[in-house]
Amino acid sequence: MFFAKGVLIEKQLSYLFAKLKSIRASTGTRLVALAAVLVAVCSTFSYGQAIDAEIRVDAKTNSVEVAGRFLDGGEIRNIAFQREFAGVSGLAERISQMRTLGANGKEVTSKAFAPGEFAAAESIGAFSYTIRLDAPDSTGQAHVSWLKNGRGVLFLGDILPLVLGKASTSATVRIIDQKVGVAGGCSSLAEGKYECSDRASAVFALSPDLRTVKTAETEINLLIEGAWNFDDQAAAKEAAELFGTYREVFGGSPQGPFEVVVMKFADETPPGRFEADTRGRTILILSSDAPFKSQSMQRLSLQLRHELFHLWLPNGVALAGRYAWFYEGAALYMASRVGLKTNRIRFDDLVSQLSTAIAFDRTSPKGVSLAMAADTRWHGNATTLYARGMLAAFMLDLELLKRSKTKHSLEDVLRKLFNDHDRRKASKVDAVPAIIEAFSAFNGTGTLAKELLDRTEPLNVAATLENSGFELADSGRDLKVKEDPSSREKAILNKLGYNNWRKLSR
Ligand SMILES: [Zn+2]
Predict the structure, then answer these.
(1) Which of 176-202 are b and which e, b meaning 16 or more Cβ less than 10 Å from the residue's Cβ?
(2) Which of 375, 442, 455, 496 is the most buried (most CB within 10 A)?
(3) What is the 359 CA–ligand 1 centroid distance (Å)?
């Protein structure tokens, strides 16, 4: 989303490539309208807007009352709220009883000129309003705030006013009348009171049933709500091992600490559904359980393999602009590669996922490139983004392995990207040239990366498959391993984990 910094959203209900709900056509127009408003507002205000707020939770009405003030004053006349996030629209319509006060505490008249956009007659020092937080009933519970029967999730990104322009992103909040289970991205100041340096990435999980499970990684806090078919200890081991594997892949850890929260949906939900959101340093997984212990664990592992990747990319790096075309495909692909590395999946599983990606990519709407699909992911192009994105990651990995005689792979590029653009040391640069440059540094694959990004037709896998050890089956659709790969091809297959699996299946 264009105004949320360090925020990553996930909507994969049935991994891989779920059919996503269609979004009303009007949403796009409204986004453009909001962008215009924000740009206009940004040019007026460029000073601090740190917020101090009390959020009173009313469990009976599933709503919150927010009362806050701008900490550093200045000429603030406009307040804007998030209206749409991750394809969930109508967020601003949940806000009512808006009151604005001047610096002297006197009521200042304000007008809503669009849902979630308020303009006051005079300068505003403080504000109060109510937000109804009924849970979105289809999808979106991992992405927007909701409350139900005393449990739920609060994202400060859709509860507090948006950060405008270069204003301060910080907020101090006190949560009243509800015990907080997790305050992701915030530090605790006192009972119920938190300091959040970036309100767009602050997540509060509220549930009386959340328990903390210790993991071997001191930087990872695992919180699990209620009863599951997997064991707490096995979940902790999985989270720590996968985190450790990614640390090796990327050559270091991003800035922690991290919260991994596993919760149930608002309502009883049939098996097989999950949503996840990696916001700042917090991974939130909402899921229904699977019927058996092993399935339940496999599901959690899959969710973790994908979401943990996002702690590094994009959340751990200072890259600007939209580049979901790269990090979503790479997350899908690396979730499988890491699954193979750690023997969580079989080589066959990787091959069949790639076959699915090829099939979906061929049904992509005409004239849509990966870059375009990423920009319109919540407006019908998520499948193209995920399928083509994964396929592009695979093709780049294969090219790197082929051209370098297995000396380099996608992992080298990921490591370079993380090392060069680590949020802690790098200043923000544009993502697309940085990614192309990282590929160019290894066997000149930058040109291919750019081609894959801009191509408006299904990707041409066949050329990349030559001399790789893979080929397309007779149908021309499914990917398969060659009957009799050459020694060079075998080396590539083994780098991808082919041998791992064969050793296990013996
Ligand atoms: Zn993702």
Answers:
(1) eebebbbbbbbeeeeebbbebebbbbb
(2) 496
(3) 20
Secondary structure (3-state) at 278: strand
Distance CA 395, CA 461 (A): 7
* pLDDT score, position 310: 97
The pLDDT value recorded for residue 355 is: 94
Ligand 1 centroid – CA 468 distance (Å): 27
Q: Name the E strands within 156-196.
A: 171-176, 182-184, 186-190, 193-196
Mean pLDDT of the chain: 87
In angstroms, rounded to a whole number, what is the distance separating the alpha carbons of residues 369 and 428? 25
Q: How far is the CA of 10 from the centre of ligand 1 (A)?
A: 5
Q: What is the rounded CA–CA span in Å between residue 131 and residue 94?
A: 5
Query: What separation in Å is there between the alpha carbon of 415 and the centre of ligand 1?
Result: 18
- Of 25-39, 128-142, 237-251, 350-364, least confident by mean pLDDT is 25-39
Helices (H), 317-445: 324-341, 347-362, 370-375, 382-403, 410-421, 431-440
DSSP for 112-137?
EEETTEEEESS--SEEEEEEE-PPPS
Ion ligand 1, residues whose Cβ is below 5 A away: 10, 328, 331
How far, CA to CA in Å, does 279 sit from each of 200, 221, 242, 347? 8, 15, 18, 31
Structural tokens at position 359? 């099939």
Kindly give the pairing relationship between strand 258-263 and strand 282-287.
parallel
On whether the CB atoms of residues 290 and 271 are closer than 8 A, the answer is: yes
What pTM did the predictor assign?
0.89
User: Ligand 1 mean position to 340 CA, how many Å?
Assistant: 18
Q: Tens of pLDDT along 114-126?
A: 999 999 999 999 9
How far away, in angstroms, is 190 Cα from ligand 1 center? 34
How many A from CA of 285 to the centre of ligand 1? 12
What is the Å distance from ligand 1's center to 310 Cα? 7
440 CB-near residues (< 8 Å, 6+ apart): 446, 447
Rg (CA), the chain: 23
Mean of pLDDT values over 451-465? 93
In whole angstroms, give the CA distance from residue 329 to residue 391.
Answer: 7
Asked whether the beta carbons of 275 and 306 are under 8 A apart, the reply is no
Mean pLDDT of 147-160: 96
